[in-house]
Amino acid sequence: MTSPGKAPIAVALDAPDAETAARWAQAVVPHVAVVKVGLELFCRTGPSVVQSVRGASGTELFLDLKLHDIPNTVAGAVRAVNRLKPRYLTVHATGGAAMVRAAVAAAEGITIAAVTVLTSMDDDALEGVGLSGPSLDAVRRLAALAVGAGAGALVCSPMEVAAVRAEVGPGIVLITPGVRPLGADAQDQARVATPQQALADGADLLVIGRPITGAADPGAAAAQIAAGLRR
Ligand code: C5P
């Protein structure tokens, strides 16, 4: 599912502008399989940022737009994204099975990755939107719903990845943010795991941003984390 020889890491290019994102991408693509463009950068710079970060490298792209609308509108957005040829595109599983199915049907060569529950939502926040009970129950339910609707990948926290793997079985790509190498600053991520732990628990692709992009030498930081995974 990822390029051979490269670490199963998606570097979150949460940059203030396209030039910085392109510079980071160029530095890390020799070491990691995927780069991730998020909503903020995409909205600020427009779809052209995809070509800027991909450059001549042809690296795989994770477009993290977290789509959530009526099925017809999401399908239209996915058709518009097809020409950008990302490897992964995110939608919210809470949009429902029909919405996820519409995204999957519209996608050409893109794996639809469903976000289960945002890690910013605690049990109280979930109760506020009508999802009562432990958050892990909602995560498992939404994971099963999204996979049943054809999603080929799921985004979940490293704390949930073992339970989600047990729920959906093999063959679904599990993508986990909130990953921090030992000794790295957790920043605003409340629940973190090391890259090794997340992979051991069943993750396939680790989203890592600031521990790499905030380093003085992002290329060296990516190489070091990648080497740690090979040991
Ligand atoms: O810098 P850091 O490693 O915390 O970056 C994590 C990336 O993963 C960010 O782009 C963030 O938006 C994204 N993300 C997350 N938690 C989620 C979903 C996405 O941190 N539940």
Topology (SSEs and partners):
Blueprint: E1 7-12, H1 18-28, E2 32-38, H2 39-45, H3 48-54, E3 60-67, H4 71-82, E4 88-92, H5 97-106, E5 111-115, H6 123-128, H7 135-148, E6 153-155, H8 161-168, E7 173-176, H9 195-200, E8 205-208, H10 210-213, H11 218-230
Parallel strand pairs: 1-2, 1-8, 2-3, 3-4, 4-5, 5-6, 6-7, 7-8
Helix pairs in contact: 1-3, 1-11, 4-5, 7-8
Distance between the termini: 20 Å
Structural class: alpha/beta
| Overall pLDDT level | 94
Ligand inventory: cytidine-5'-monophosphate
Helical proportion? 40-55%
State which percent range the strand residues make up.
15-25%
**Strand-and-helix sequence, N→C?**
EHEHHEHEHEHHEHEHEHH
Shape: globular
Number of helices: 11
Measured on Cα atoms, how large is the radius of gyration? 17 Å
Residue windows where pLDDT falls under 50 for at least 5 positions: none
The beta-strand count equals 8
Main sheet properties: 8 strands, parallel, barrel
Strand order of the largest sheet: 1-2-3-4-5-6-7-8
What does this structure look like?
- It is a single chain.
- The chain is an alpha/beta fold and 231 residues long.
- Helix content is 42%, strand content 18%.
- It is built from eleven helices and eight strands.
- It has helices at 18-28, 39-45, 48-54, 71-82, 97-106, 123-128, 135-148, 161-168, 195-200, 210-213, 218-230; strands at residues 7-12, 32-38, 60-67, 88-92, 111-115, 153-155, 173-176, 205-208.
- It has an eight-stranded parallel barrel, surrounded by seven helices.
- The mean pLDDT is 94.
